[in-house]
Structures
1.
Amino acid sequence: MSDPLLDAAANVPTEPVTELFGPSAELVREVAYALEKDRPEVVLDIINPLHPADVADVVEQLPADLREPLMEVLDAETAGDMLAEVNEGIRDDLLRAMPAEQVAEAVSTLDSDDQVYVLEDLSEKRQKAILNELDAPDALSLADSLSYPDDSAGRIMQRDLVAVPAFWTVGQVIDFLRDADELPETFYQLFVIDADFKPIGGVLLDRLLRAKRPTRVDDVMMEEPIVIPADTDQEEVGLLFKQYDLVTAAVVDHTGRLVGCITVDDMVEIVQDEVEEDVLRLAGVGEEEVSDSVMDITRSRFIWLLVNLGTAIMASGVIALFADTIQQVVALAILMPIVASMGGNAGTQTLTIAVRALATHELTAANAMRIVTREVLVGGLNGILFAVLIGGIAGWWFADPALGSVIALAMVINMIVAGLSGILVPMGLNRLNIDPAVSSSVFVTTVTDVVGFFAFLGLAGLIML
């Protein structure tokens, strides 16, 4: 018996099928309903017109128990494109559930860089099972790419490229491009190589097409191309693209031979991922995804909350040293959090700028002293301004000028320390080859809490008692 709702979904286009970014909520509900009613033809009628990124959004928004049934409906090409777009947690769950031959069939439709992206987080055993289902040349090429370090140029490069010798003419190159059976789906530049397959230059397509047919390639090529070793970190690659306005860059192995290329469309996604990763790490939530389970999220957050508990106990230990002082001047307990809070916020501001500057190589050994001095001066000036403000408020509130003086002095001290620690902590961690985005905030807030409490309560003991 036909279902009128499913028939309507199959025959009448949903308007709009997508929002500005991603599928509409109504479309996702229609796909879920069709899957529940076991109507694969309706699912395909809804899914087929969508962009792969929108298909990935549909998968992410579906209940977990409907994702595998959807994968059984999709053809290999659609499944492959979707796996390259969907978030990592869901993708890895799907790959673990899919038979190795089904994964191989889907992966074989992708570009080489997307193939690596889809398989790189799987276990070595699972990767081998999938590689065994691929054609030998594709399997060897993919295995070689997976052998490079995580987050390296070798992992994100595309092996499909066009390379020509320098002695060819423009006419020969054009004829070659027209007659070649297999070319990259999209490319912007031709790589010029020597007899050892090492890159010696490059020719952008617009420059090639403007040249006369008899012109030799070495007369129109750009010499001294930007060449990226395959083991270069992807963050460094992103900086190179930004620094030199690159569209495409050659990737070479340890012998200098051309093994692949990286294009700007891939770098946009890489840079976005790097920024997102740093933001999440600054907040102490790692690489958490919306689709992660309750237990996974709890486990990842617990570690950082445990570290914060330890630093909070340390700050409480400082307060305990001045228990008698607080008992004699109760107003100290009321005002105490202000100094620590202001210092923590100021330190976080400096820390955020410092982490970004280190990531983009704007903060280096050459300008470190100038930047440190600047942040100390900024902290001192802000400290003075807020000292006048909070000192006046506290003195008027408790009718005690001495108390106003104490909190004013403590504010200046802690704001200077906040600026200093906010810049020195990430620099120190970076010098030790520790990602400053991961743990800087814990150290900085600990320093500002401890110094803030110690300065405020210590000055109170000296001046007021």
Note: The first strand starts at residue 163 and ends at 165.
2.
Amino acid sequence: MSTGPSNKKALKSGIWYTASNFFVRSIGFITTPIFTRLLTKAEFGDYNNFASWLSIVTIVVTLNLEATLISARFDYKDNFDEYIFSSLSLSSISVFVWFTVVNLFPSVFTKWMDMDLTYINAMLLYLLFLPAVNQFQARERYRYEYKMTVLSSVIVSLGTTVVSVVMVVSMKDRLFGRIIGSVIPTILVGAIFFGFFVRKGKRIRPKYWKYALPLCLPFIPHLLSLNMLHTMDRIMITKWCGSEDTAVYSLAYTCGSLITLLMTSMNSAYSPWLGDKLNKDERSEVRKFSKPYIFAFAFCAVGVMAIAPEILLILGSKGYSEAKYVMTPIAAGCVCQFLYTLFVNVEQFKKKTVGMAFASMTAALVNLVLNWIFIPRFGYLAAAYTTLAGYLVLLAIHMALVHRIKYSDVYDYKLIICVVAVMLVIMVLITLLYKLTLIRYIFVGLYAAVCVLIFIKYKSKVLGFLKKK
């Protein structure tokens, strides 16, 4: 990345945003043991059912209009706030339509979702205000103003944890307390940001809806397919192997989510910068920066693989030790996730969302078929490798799609193929090292030494940079 003023502002914003977003998203991961002790197993399971449905319903009900901002900020740069207000209005209309349908036919939805109507309505109320939070934070990221994004994220995350604990402890219906506690902070902060966009946007223009819908609607099957790719393995493990194997697999998947958190945080900071560079057709600069960016993420993933047994011991117990063999393919899959997201960012910028839907649906189908074949034969461990296969398919298709739209020079394809190949080899080697504890500890020591050397080498530059205004 060059040293121009805009790049410095983008990098500084990216560093702070990545660090803070990773911290904020980790709070939910860290506080899981608290709620497993405050809630009964049945209540904890019901809340996870709520959370699982929320991840699906969010995609459908809100229309994922936030995904259109990466291109709309250039196409409507003089009326960007007006565009955001119009898109928020469209998502609100969608929420009201779904609210009406759900309450006209409550038995259909309560039976289908295995959830009380009160909880479904709480979910829809949450989704009325969530887009305002997401789009405000996206707006600030695109302006490289990280302070309000970080502050609002911390308030929502900490508020959700604190309010949820208070509600669970003080209410007789602890499940209702957990759900209400998880939605109230977002509703309050979202209402403030919604008011902000009402004042800034002022007018609702249907022409923005005509612009947004062709972009976001094909994105919905893409996200739904990805959701299937993430969750179908656990459903099928339960069916064929039982709940205990699902528990072991789920804990390993939760540990692997540490890498996913890092990926999400880094990409949220990276995508606005990428959009600026592509808008200026500065592809060589993106190609140059992407190389250390890719290496840094892959390096972090290797570290998680190496200490997987210790992570599992801290979060679980000795009874979950076998889950370590699931961690390596999950971590390798996260690297593939990270790499295909780089290409997805380019496709979003070029408004090529139909291809994205095709890619994710194909990968989900591959994963489903492989799960059907291998889980009954080899157990839950097979699911980790079938999911990795799905991500490899996804990466290959997205690379082909970006090549097709003539943007293959944005990234070094040979480098990416080499990184994937090396990662697969490391995955196998570290899996073998799990049986050779002493050698693995030596490897971990060398890895830690490299981390220290890198920190010492770049400490003064990073700290000096962050102190600059």
Note: The two ends are 19 Å apart (CA to CA).
3.
Amino acid sequence: MVEAPRPVSPDGLSTPLLAILACLLWSTAFVGIKIGLRSTTPLSFAGIRFMLSGLLLVPVWWRRTPWGAGLAGHWRLVGQVAFFQTFLLYGLFYLGIALVPAALAAIIIGASPLTTALVVHFRLTDEPLTRMRGVSLILGVVGVAVVSLGRTPWVSPAGLVECGGILLLLLSSLSSAMGNILVAKEAPGLDPILLTSAQIFLGGLFLFLVSVPLEGLPVWAALPLSYFGALAWLAGLSAVAFSLWFVLLRRPGVGVTQLNLWKFLIPVSGAGLSWLLLPDESPRPSALAGMVAIAAAIVLFHRAES
């Protein structure tokens, strides 16, 4: 009798494959968020999404990792990761994407590997900032500047609002870098799936609690089916993508900066999907030029790594 093949666990798959999968999943979020925000408020939508994501992962870790034993001695770390990686990151992100087109948000978030590299240089001694990395960072800043100035903030209030949204997105990337460093540096021995579940649920709960006095409670009966479809998709992709990412951050020999280089896929895929699926969005020359500059910066950074 031929034995049936066993399913391959995330630990048995290559790092590039899992990183690409996580980034492609994240790139679909821009369209989903824009669809959901047509009928609800940013912080409430984000909070509900991440609470659901955390709960979706409970069956995965429940049998293999007792709750109390799994998090014993790690609650401070879980709280810190939840603050930087979910509460602050996605609070800023949802507020920012509400002010800019989805494709533009994808391009700006595409510069997050460069933000991570800069933060890692000052926080981790084993990933120094070389001259080539410095050049790539400057090129990435130029790309972000091209995108931002292309909104002509000095011409209209709408352009100024969009530049404010870009600033919020850049700050969310900074928060993401801090969360990545915490997971890579401070979480030995902690099940990455359990950490993902606990931190995104906790961060989502904080986002929702903050949203109540600021935005009020959502009126569920008045929300369209498109809202619930977007919410279900976003909750599922968060659970999967964050779990994959945390598994990779815990792998021996995988650097935070090197892993985050795969996020260069996000602006290309995210912007393309937004232009394709959202009827009110189309590419501008400044957006395309900024995307090219940011992608070139990340490729240059990758060459410096090799």
Note: Confidence is low (pLDDT under 50) at residues 1-8.
4.
Amino acid sequence: MPQKSLLMRLLPLFITVLVILIIVLLIITAPKAKRGAPAPKASLTVSTSAIKAAPFTVDITSFGRIEATTRTELRAQVGGKITYINPAFEAGGSVNQGDVLVEIEKDDFNIAQLQAQATYIDAKRLFDEETARASQAQSDWSNAGRKGQPADLVLRKPQIAAAQARLLSAEAALNGAKLNVKRATITAPYKAQVLSRQVGPYQVMAANTVIGEIFSTETVEVTLPIRNSDYPLLADTLAATASISTPLFKHQQSKTTPPKTQQKWPATIVRRSVNIDEATRQPFVVAQLSNASLSTNGSLKLGQYVTASIQGRTFDNAIVIPNSSIYQGSYVYTFKDSAIYRQPITSLWQSPSVTIVQSGLRDGDEIVTSPLGQVTSGTRVRREGEAKSRPQRKKPAGKHARSNMNKEQTP
């Protein structure tokens, strides 16, 4: 009994001591709040560029083939034996307006002309005789003292009409014979380059035979298909300009050969389509090149493929950004307050190098121009050129400060 009463008296004391020990242990092991912890250090450096709205002229790219503005298939209007062919009348040759290309034997045409001339002279004689007889009949009627107007037969009017008809027919035959003599000499209708020749020396050919084909070198043109999305961006004025150039292929820029210079020619848009091209299913424009170099030593050839840069509309306050700053064609990264943010955009027009932004960016926004992968929006970064910021660490003053630091580092 005495032991039991002693235990009963000491039990409250044990409980009190145990509670105090638990409280002290909780206080010691409780987590300590770290006040003034520094912000996460930026580990990514980016290049940025401030957007500035400015006038911008759209350049629309296209391609096509050089074609002749004026192309003529030459045909002989008379038949006969060829006696002369101009040495320049060969494929690739150049001729001037009025140059003789082909001559046909003229003996038969000269004979026909002489015969027609003789017929004309005889018809003229008969007409003059009938005219004289009619004048004499009128005088005889007046001298005879007859009254009234004589009949047509008396004045030989039917005979005069018949003689006049024969005269007109003879004159027409003479003009036709002269024309055949002239047609026996085939000349170039304009300054041209020869595409082909279909006849040879001393060949006997019939009328309407094709002798060759030529095209004018004064102007050439190229039909340029335009994407449906780009067609509204063409300049409003019809006389828009274009730059025609020859395309450079990769094999032309090998390491063993010197770099080639891309030649360019100015051109003018002269026509626009009112229909869709059957081959490309796109609208098109026609660019014309004046005085292009199309000789055998020239750089441009008929049928050659060329590329074109067409002047389009000018936007007064365009926001233009490089394509390299656009990701998946739909968003960019903007820079603000030492962090980057994903910003969706919509495009109005895009070239191989730049894009006109329709919505999503404003004048003064700063975009990231250095290449990035998939970066979380809000990631802290350091702008290129800014000094690296190092956190300042204060030296602990005495044992008390060292003890506090140890407490803060305790998990």
Note: The longest helix spans residues 107-143.
